[in-house]
């Protein structure tokens, strides 16, 4: 392998601000010239699953060329999947096993089971553009897949591989080009109107005209979409001209009835002509649908990509406006509606053609009187338009509630542990229930309105013909022949089919316009200034020894509330009076639910500073006039009390904080470590993060980041999968993996944010010595930290004060001159001499080896399988939906009314079908005056009865289905919410968040909107087909012989189709969930990805997953259309038999009866197709129902939440005594015991410190107390009550916890302390004072504070109850979040308090204050404190030392310290604790 330097062309999406400097590229020398090949030509390489796996497994492979940037990561090359995919990514999306199937017609097929293709060489390219005309005409090219699917379950590798022309990259290029054209035009207009605006303002404030995205989509897919429209017009024309042939046919039968010797030649010609016209109608219709559905699928894909692409570029304020929950809702729900809508839009284009043909032919047939019926059509059409305005209103309102519900579900799922600790399940459930009820109320109104309109549209031809024929009777006494009457009735029927699809096309079009409008707002929102990164580049005259130079620089966090207020003002100023009234009404309606401020994080700590030097608790927002420089190779520490902006300073240096003045120069590649974001991937892939594997370097980094011991005890070492957001890792492990990921990159400047806070002293010292001061000794390092015991290692120190001061200098000097640092050091333990550790180190390492094995029973292993995989595979149903699912779905919708509802529904279908068909039969009686003695009014009256009866019964039938469907959807969703809230943590830890969220977004949306639609269509049209068949048998008894054969052929085709079509659709659903999981993960780790300049890699991965989803999606559409064409052929054969029987007069049948028959028989292809499409759509939507039913009925549950009969008295526990008796605890049945034979008694009000080496089982005590899992044996007794005997609610609400990672919810501080208004306001204020958030003497003043005149909270106290909390508490520093967690615990007024390393992330001064508060405020409580910092628990009554899950020592701190043999003594030695640190010596 040869390495040589090349220069980057910077074409990788413009992503790397420094990439142009140095790139190393590796090529196999024999294939040197291949390096310059065009990526596009070889695109299909990127989905070659078999070869990818081989390729990724070994870096030394010489199969492909690749380029490595100077910072150590791969340069993205889409021809070489190794550069953007992990091995696991491929395995997940291409896993293909063989599952043979026995089916109804298996005996007709050979017994040989086809193999699954191993790699892309064995797979064919998608044949749409690579097959002959005839094969494309009948879509015959899908048959090989149908055959495979009939013999065994279809797998991902069976599908055709993506054609470059249809790949997401290709179509996105066109979309992007078209979108940019509109953007450039809009920006030009803006700059003409605002000549004083600068470039950034023009970019931020330009708004696109309405419907721009729709236009862009049109120009992107114009050829495909126009083809679809052409097919729709031609299909409509064939259906419009068919009644002309029918007219001749009826006239011929009439003539033959009068003149028996008439030759049948002409009649046979008419019969064949009518059937040929039907056939072409079917084929054209299906090609239109194929093209439009393909367009819908591609539009959804590229808009998903566009949204993700945009999220990488948006500004901080835009992130606040578009939090992850909102973007997820766009992509999952709105884009599914866009896809559905696009497939129907060509109906609107084809409508005028058929309308014109129908008008002309009706006037020819019936004369000018036909205009009466046509006029009615037009009136109803206008009414439909008006009614759809109210449907829009309901949809918009429902959307707001949907967003709120999805946001609430995200909040619950992200913070499930907190919900369980605080026993908030019921409160959250009722919260979701309220939002869901409001959402369903709007969905129901929308559905009911739509149903009445669809029923009216479907009854319209009969009503129009009724009005026309009644008028005709009055004008010329019905002087028209059967041929005229029934060909006119056929024309009205043709218009009816259009009227059926017209409202669907219109309503889905409205959904699409609303969805695209929301997406357009996202795409035009403000972006980061692209020049801001450029400005960081060093000037030519910068001293080369300087790494970072800051000159007169000012930085600030924007005031989102103020910007929100300005935005609102701008929108209001552009409103008309009418729009304003509508908005105020809508707002009033929404406000009864909640006042939400959507948001996303600014960063991890933006708090006190120099806005107001005199009031330190106002919100920190800016730095002013900073001047400092950091030389290359220097190690600089940033420290200061909580909330002074340490993380903000790192963000300012990294370019994430808005610069308002001055200059900053970065000389070299800079990397910000940031928040420890962990991917759902293996440990190894989390560390490599897009860089090639170098064994030696990798092992060194594991050692210096102290990860070797952790890996030894993981089930598959570094190949162990980590759960989403690192759920199966401790805080320390996450921090170290994050550190290893940073260090693995070959950067010049490293910014670290408190990487030492979550690790114990020994590990912290090792990382400092071996990593920060060892491996990185020649790099520039900036570390924000509270660990002052290690400041001697720094070259310089930056101290930020609560008064907004900024001081920098060498450590020795700053120790004398900086008062802030002097104060902080008083609380910190001075670092001991290095020699102190040497003595213990060897013994410690040996003990460590054995002790770490214990983690096997804790962090990961208790959840991961032996191959290291933690996440359970997406459940994929195979074959048809089980009957039980239908039963559950129905019972959710009708409950105990089943015995009434089902017979009533069958009765309504029968009545609807009878009235619809018999109205035409009655018309034939009237035409031939069957009952001679009856008057005309008798015929007219009954004809009117059947026509209007049909409409009334149809409306009732549709409403009943809708009512059942909406209720089922509501209750299944709420039951699923209930079960997910009560599912054990082990289930939630092993199921990806994206998958759970999918149930509450896409699946719920399917049940709300699509399932009722397809069920209604299926049942109505099935009734119609049965009615038509019965009518044919009544008129032509011999026809009964043909029905079994036709039924058999129908079942044969449908069975073949369903065995493949169903599985392909399911594959698409699974691949879609990979796309959504990836999307969720990327949105969560956006900051980290940007810090690592890895945007292009994650976009390439997203494209790969979208293409995989589309391989199934495109084929699914083609298979649906293939089966429709073949069903058309059956229906045409059916119609041919009927028409020939009529023409040859095999039965004595009148011309009027022939008219009736042909009116319906010629609709059969459409009916059969509609039934199969509705059947398939119903089954596809029932997949969503199946998943919802599974969640609603089968999710594992924790023990009983409430046991009223065992409920302890309200005053329990009044003492707080805890007793463990022979407690054995495992994380799941069958896994190793983690706590072994624990016996101890804790007295009332006792303060117990719990310590032990990492993984000794400290946090497991907490899991046992909270019953996150049940005990294996033994019992825990609190105040004489065995906690396993009472409900979880009664137990958990009586305990209080301050966790290691404090969780804050979006909303206000009031909502965070008391989310469900269970406590009086005075208690909340009191808790804020007692928790140290507000000084007692300030309380009254703080209470009186109000919003400022701009409507923002910026001038209010940081901890005012109405102060806004951003998503995940991002506008509070870690220390401030800890204070709020303490306050929340105070609000609970519990007798037992558990602290889980609660102060590990704050500085020593704050730690001291919090500990003092705890002692003071929880004086009469029993406290269990799990501690990293031993100093915090030296004043406790007793210390519990755990070793390998057993109690090793349990005595007073002083006694344990004085015994030199104890583990506690050795831990004190390593932490530098001496006798003088003990305040209690008993």
UniProtKB/TrEMBL annotation:
Biased composition (Basic and acidic residues): 588-605
Biased composition (Polar residues): 1-15
UniProt-listed InterPro entries: AAA+_ATPase (IPR003593), ABC1_TM_dom (IPR011527), ABC1_TM_sf (IPR036640), ABC_transporter-like_ATP-bd (IPR003439), ABC_transporter-like_CS (IPR017871), ABC_transporter_C-like (IPR050173), P-loop_NTPase (IPR027417)
Pfam families: ABC_membrane (PF00664), ABC_tran (PF00005)
Annotated region (Disordered), positions in chain: 1-47, 588-613, 831-871
Entry keyword set: ATP-binding, Membrane, Nucleotide-binding, Transmembrane, Transmembrane helix, Transport
TM helices/strands, residue ranges: 225-245, 265-285, 347-364, 370-392, 452-473, 485-506, 904-925, 945-969, 1025-1053, 1122-1142, 1149-1168
Domain ABC transmembrane type-1: 226-511, 904-1180
Record's bilayer topology term: Multi-pass membrane protein
Main location: membrane
CDD domains cross-referenced by the UniProt entry: ABC_6TM_YOR1_D1_like, ABC_6TM_YOR1_D2_like, ABCC_MRP_domain1, ABCC_MRP_domain2
Localization in the cell: Membrane
Domain ABC transporter: 599-827, 1218-1469
GO cellular component, one term: plasma membrane
Alphabetized GO MF terms: ABC-type xenobiotic transporter activity; ATP binding; ATP hydrolysis activity
Family: Belongs to the ABC transporter superfamily. ABCC family. Conjugate transporter (TC 3.A.1.208) subfamily.
Protein name stated in the entry: Similar to Saccharomyces cerevisiae YGR281W YOR1 Plasma membrane ATP-binding cassette (ABC) transporter
């Amino acid at each position: 392998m040869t390495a040589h330097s090349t220069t980057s062309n910077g074409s990788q999406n413009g992503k790397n601000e420094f990439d142009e400097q140095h790139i190393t590229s590796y090529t196999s020398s024999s294939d040197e010239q291949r390096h310059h090949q065009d990526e596009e030509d070889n695109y299909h390489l990127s989905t070659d699953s078999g070869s990818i796996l081989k390729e990724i497994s070994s870096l030394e492979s010489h199969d492909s060329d690749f380029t490595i940037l100077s910072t150590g990561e791969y340069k993205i090359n889409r021809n070489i999947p190794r550069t953007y995919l992990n091995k696991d990514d491929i395995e997940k999306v291409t896993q293909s096993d063989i599952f043979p199937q026995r089916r109804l017609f298996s005996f007709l097929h050979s017994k040989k089971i086809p193999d699954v293709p191993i790699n892309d060489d064995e797979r064919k390219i998608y044949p749409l553009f690579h097959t002959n005309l005839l094969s494309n005409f009948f879509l015959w090219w899908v048959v090989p897949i149908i055959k495979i699917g009939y013999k065994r379950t279809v797998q991902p590798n069976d599908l055709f591989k993506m054609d470059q022309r249809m790949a997401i990259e290709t179509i996105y290029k066109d979309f992007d080009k078209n979108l940019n054209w509109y953007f450039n035009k809009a920006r030009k207009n803006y700059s003409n109107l605002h000549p004083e605006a600068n470039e950034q303002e023009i970019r931020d404030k330009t708004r696109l005209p309405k419907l721009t995205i729709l236009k862009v989509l049109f120009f992107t897919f114009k050829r495909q979409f126009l083809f679809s429209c052409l097919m729709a017009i031609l299909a409509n024309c064939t259906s419009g001209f068919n009644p002309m042939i029918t007219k001749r046919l009826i006239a011929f039968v009439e003539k033959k009835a009068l003149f028996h010797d008439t030759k049948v030649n002409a009649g046979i010609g008419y019969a064949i002509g009518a059937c040929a016209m039907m056939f072409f109608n079917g084929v054209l219709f299906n090609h239109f649908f194929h093209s439009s559905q393909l367009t819908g699928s591609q539009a959804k894909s590229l808009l998903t990509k566009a949204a993700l692409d945009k999220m990488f570029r948006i500004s901080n304020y835009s992130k606040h406006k578009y939090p992850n929950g909102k973007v997820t809702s766009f992509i999952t729900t709105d884009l599914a509606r866009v896809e559905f809508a696009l497939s129907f839009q060509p109906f609107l284009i084809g409508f005028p053609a058929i309308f014109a043909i129908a008008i002309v032919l009706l006037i020819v047939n019936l004369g000018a009187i036909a205009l009466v019926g046509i006029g009615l059509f037009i009136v109803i059409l206008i009414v439909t338009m008006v009614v759809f305005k109210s449907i829009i209103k309901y949809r918009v309102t429902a959307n707001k509630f949907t967003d709120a519900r999805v946001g609430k579900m995200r909040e619950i799922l992200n913070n499930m542990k907190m919900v369980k600790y605080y026993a908030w399940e019921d409160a959250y459930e009722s919260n979701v229930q309220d939002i869901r009820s409001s959402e369903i109320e709007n969905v129901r109104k929308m559905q009911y309105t739509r149903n009445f309109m669809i029923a009216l549209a479907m009854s319209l031809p009969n009503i129009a013909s009724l009005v026309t024929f009644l008028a005709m009777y009055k004008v010329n006494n019905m002087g028209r022949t059967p041929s005229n009457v029934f060909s006119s009735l056929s024309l009205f029927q043709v218009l009816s089919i259009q009227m059926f699809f017209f409202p669907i096309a219109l309503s889905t079009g409205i959904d699409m316009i609303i969805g695209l409008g929301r997406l357009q707002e996202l795409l035009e929102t403000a972006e980061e200034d692209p020049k801001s990164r450029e400005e960081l580049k060093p000037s030519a005259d910068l001293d080369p020894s300087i790494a970072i130079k800051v000159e007169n620089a000012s930085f600030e966090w924007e005031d989102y509330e103020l910007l929100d207020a300005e935005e609102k003002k701008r929108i209001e100023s552009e409103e008309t009076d009418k729009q304003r009234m509508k908005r105020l009404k809508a707002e009033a309606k929404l406000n009864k639910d909640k006042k939400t401020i959507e948001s996303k994080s600014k960063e991890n700590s933006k708090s006190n500073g120099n806005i107001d030097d005199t009031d330190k608790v106002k919100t920190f927002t800016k730095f002013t006039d900073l001047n400092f420089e950091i030389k290359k190779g220097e190690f600089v520490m940033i420290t200061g009390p909580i909330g002074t902006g340490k993380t903000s300073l790192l963000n300012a240096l990294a370019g994430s904080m808005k610069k308002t003045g001055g200059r900053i120069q970065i000389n070299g590649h800079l990397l910000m470590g940031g928040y420890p974001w962990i991917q759902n991937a293996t440990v190894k892939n989390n560390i490599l993060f897009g860089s090639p594997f170098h064994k030696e370097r990798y092992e060194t980094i594991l050692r210096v980041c102290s990860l070797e011991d952790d890996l030894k005890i993981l089930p598959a070492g570094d190949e162990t999968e980590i759960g989403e957001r690192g759920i199966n890792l401790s805080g320390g492990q996450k921090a170290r993996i994050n550190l290893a990921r940073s260090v693995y990159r070959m950067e010049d400047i490293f910014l670290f944010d408190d990487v030492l806070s979550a690790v114990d002293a020994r590990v912290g010292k090792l990382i400092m010595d071996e990593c920060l001061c060892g491996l990185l000794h020649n790099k520039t390092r900036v570390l924000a930290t509270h660990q002052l015991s290690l400041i001697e290692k720094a070259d310089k120190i930056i101290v930020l004060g609560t008064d907004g001061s900024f001081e920098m200098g060498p450590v020795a000097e700053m120790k004398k001159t900086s008062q802030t640092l002097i104060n902080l050091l008083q609380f910190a333990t001075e670092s001991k001499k290095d020699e102190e550790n040497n003595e213990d180190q060897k013994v410690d390492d040996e003990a460590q080896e054995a002790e770490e094995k214990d983690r096997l029973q804790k962090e990961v292993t208790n959840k991961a399988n032996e191959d290291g995989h933690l996440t359970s595979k997406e459940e994929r149903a195979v074959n048809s939906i089980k009957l039980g699912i239908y039963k559950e779905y129905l019972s959710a919708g009708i409950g105990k009314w089943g015995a009434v509802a089902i017979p009533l529904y069958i009765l309504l279908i029968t009545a609807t079908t009878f009235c619809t068909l018999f109205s035409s039969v009655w018309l034939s009686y009237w035409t031939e005056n069957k009952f001679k003695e009856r008057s005309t009014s008798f015929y007219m009256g009954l004809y009117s009865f059947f026509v209007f009866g049909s409409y009334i019964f149809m409306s009732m039938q549709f409403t009943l289905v809708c009512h059942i469907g909406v209720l089922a959807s509501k209750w299944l969703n709420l039951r699923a919410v209930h079960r997910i809230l009560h599912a054990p943590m082990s289930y939630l830890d092993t199921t990806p968040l994206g998958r759970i969220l999918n149930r509450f977004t896409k699946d719920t949306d399917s049940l709300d909107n699509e399932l009722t639609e397809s069920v209604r269509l299926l049942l109505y049209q099935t009734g119609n087909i049965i009615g038509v068949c019965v009518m044919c048998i009544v008129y032509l008894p011999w026809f009964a012989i043909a029905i079994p054969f036709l039924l058999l052929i129908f079942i044969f085709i449908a069975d073949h189709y369903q065995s493949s079509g169903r599985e392909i659709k399911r594959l698409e659903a699974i691949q879609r969930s990979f796309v959504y999981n990836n999307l969720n993960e990327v949105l969560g780790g956006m900051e980290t990805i940007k810090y690592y300049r890895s945007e292009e890699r994650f976009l390439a991965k997203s494209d790969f997953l979208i293409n995989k989803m589309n391989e199934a999606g495109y084929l699914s559409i083609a298979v649906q259309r293939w089966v429709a064409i073949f069903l058309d052929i059956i229906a045409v054969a059916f119609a041919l038999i009927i028409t020939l029987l009529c023409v040859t007069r095999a039965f004595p049948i009148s011309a009027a009866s022939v008219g009736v028959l042909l009116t319906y028989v010629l609709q059969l292809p459409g009916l059969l197709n509609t039934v199969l499409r509705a059947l398939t759509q119903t089954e596809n939507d029932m997949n969503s129902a199946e998943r919802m039913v599974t969640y609603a009925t089968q999710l594992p549950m924790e023990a009983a939440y409430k046991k009223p009969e065992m409920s302890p008295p309200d005053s329990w526990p009044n003492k707080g005594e805890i007793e463990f008796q022979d407690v054995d605890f495992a994380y799941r049945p069958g896994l190793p015991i983690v706590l072994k034979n624990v016996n101890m008694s804790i007295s009332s009000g006792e303060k117990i410190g719990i310590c032990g080496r990492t993984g000794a089982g400290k946090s497991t005590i907490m899991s046992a107390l909270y019953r996150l899992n049940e005990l294996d044996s033994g019992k825990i007794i609190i105040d004489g009550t065995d906690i396993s005997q009472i409900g979880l609610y009664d137990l958990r609400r009586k305990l209080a916890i301050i966790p290691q990672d404090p969780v804050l919810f979006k909303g206000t501080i009031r909502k965070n302390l008391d989310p469900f208004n269970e406590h009086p306001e005075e208690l909340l204020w009191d808790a804020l004072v007692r928790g140290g958030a507000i000084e007692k003497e300030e309380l009254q003043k703080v209470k009186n504070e109000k919003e400022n005149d701009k409507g923002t909270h910026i001038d209010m106290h940081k901890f005012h109850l109405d102060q806004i909390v951003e998503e995940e508490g991002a506008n509070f520093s870690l220390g401030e979040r800890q204070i709020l967690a303490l306050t929340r615990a105070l609000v609970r007024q519990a007798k037992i308090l558990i602290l889980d390393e609660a102060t590990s992330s704050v500085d020593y001064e704050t730690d001291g204050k919090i500990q003092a508060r705890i002692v003071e405020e929880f004086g009469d409580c029993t406290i269990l404190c799990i501690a990293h910092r031993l100093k915090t628990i030296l004043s406790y009554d007793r210390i519990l030392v755990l070793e390998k899950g057993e109690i090793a020592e349990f005595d007073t701190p002083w006694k344990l310290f004085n015994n030199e043999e104890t583990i506690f003594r050795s831990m004190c030695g390593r932490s530098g604790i001496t006798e003088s640190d003990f305040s209690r010596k008993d």
